[in-house]
Amino acid sequence: MIVGIGRYCGGVEVDAAQSALIRASGTLTADAVSLVSAMHARASHDPSDFLWMALASPTAKELAALAAVFEIPALWIADSLNPRQRAKAEFSPDGRSALIVFKIVSYDEPTSSIETGQIALLVGPAHVITVRLGPVGALSRVRSAVTADTELLARGPLAAVHGIADAIVDDYLMASDEISTDIDDIEGHVFSPLVTDDSESIYQLKRENLELRRAVAPLVTLAHGLVDGSLRGIPADLHPYFRDVGDHLLRAHDTIETSDTLLMAILAVSNSRQGLQQNTDMRKIAAYAAMLGVPTAIAGIYGMNFEHMPELKQVWGYPVVLGIMAVSLLLMFRAFKRSGWL
After folding, report:
1. Residues 104 and 231 placed together within one structural domain of the fold
2. Which of 62, 196, 311, 335 fits 58 for a cystine, CB–CB 3.0-4.6 Å?
């Protein structure tokens, strides 16, 4: 499905009529592919002139038709259509074309969960094709923001790549910050005076952090290349823009790693506090059981109805036995209290 297309030259959209016809078709029919091919041919003569297409869940047949127009390797097409593809960046031998796969994340605050999607960027000297899989990660807002900055857009297809990458990485940062906030809440709950079982909440949050980690961790090498400027193919005037994206990506990765370590520590503390609370409860139960054992034993002896028990005939027998029980209980209570069992 075609969700967006436009040809831009010098930061301004051209061939708007042809773009409208292609969008109206909705899918890459033979006529639409023919129009795309003509637009791409015209866009191949100026570095600032490029074609930007956005596809949502396209078929293999549609992408194969585009591959013939833009000379995209078959393996890149297959990776773009694989929803389980690992996030990565691959470059052609001459460095003029690239495949960049991002995992898109969307943080749902009410449920503290992360929804994931995937978007692949097929980049060439005169084209940027985005292939989105799943409902998450619509780029209409990003496209509007990028096309509004005509000065940046005039720098060619990498300007569109930067706008897309910057928006995706900003979502990584937002999600990692939200998870950090949730960790602070759980941490306060774990260390509250009331000991409760928080292991399920901690585990769920750890799973969400793991989803985010799977999206960010494979891109760390790429981020280092963006920060130190060693990644070839990026013009000098765009280095500051991509360096900023790389820096944000590394910051998100550091936050994710810190959150993972902190969650492990909180889970260990939570389990330790539960174990300590259980030990405390068991000691209290054992202490009270021991205290009740003394009067129970005395009552058991006098409940056996022996005939020759002299104290049963004495007036003082009953109060003395009760007194012995009371004194025993007080002494045991004092001993358990001093030892910390009660």
Report:
1. yes
2. 62
Most confident of 35-39, 290-294, 334-338: 35-39
For residue 172, the Cα-to-chain-centroid distance in whole angstroms is: 8
Residues 238 and 334 in one domain: no
Beta bridge mates, 127 = 51, 124
Cα dihedral 260/263/265/269 (nearest 10): -170
pLDDT tens column, 65-99? 989 899 999 999 999 999 999 999 999 888 889 99
**pTM for the full model?**
0.79
Which of 254, 272, 290 is the endpoint of a domain? 272
Burial of 246 (0-12, 13-18, 19+ CB in 10 A): buried
pLDDT digits (tens, 9 = 90+) for 278-332: 777 787 888 888 888 888 887 777 777 666 676 666 777 778 778 888 888 888 8
Strands 50-56 and 12-14: unpaired
Domain enclosing residue 319, as ranges: 278-339
- Using CA atoms, how far apart are residues 127 and 293, in angstroms rounded to an integer? 86
Phi, psi of 156 (to 5 degrees): 100, -170
287 contact partners, CB below 8 Å, separation of at least 6? 332, 336, 341, 342
12-14 vs 2-9, strand pairing mode: antiparallel
Count CB neighbours of 182 within 10 A: 21
Rounded Cα distance between 78 and 193, Å, is 55
DSSP state of 261: H
- As for how many domains the chain has, the answer is 2
Same-domain check for residues 196 and 254: yes
Gap between the Cα atoms of 195 and 184, Å rounded: 17
Q: How far apart are CA 117 and CA 134, in angstroms?
A: 6
Question: Could you report how far apart the first and last alpha carbons of the chain are, in Å?
Answer: 70
* 137 SS3 class: coil
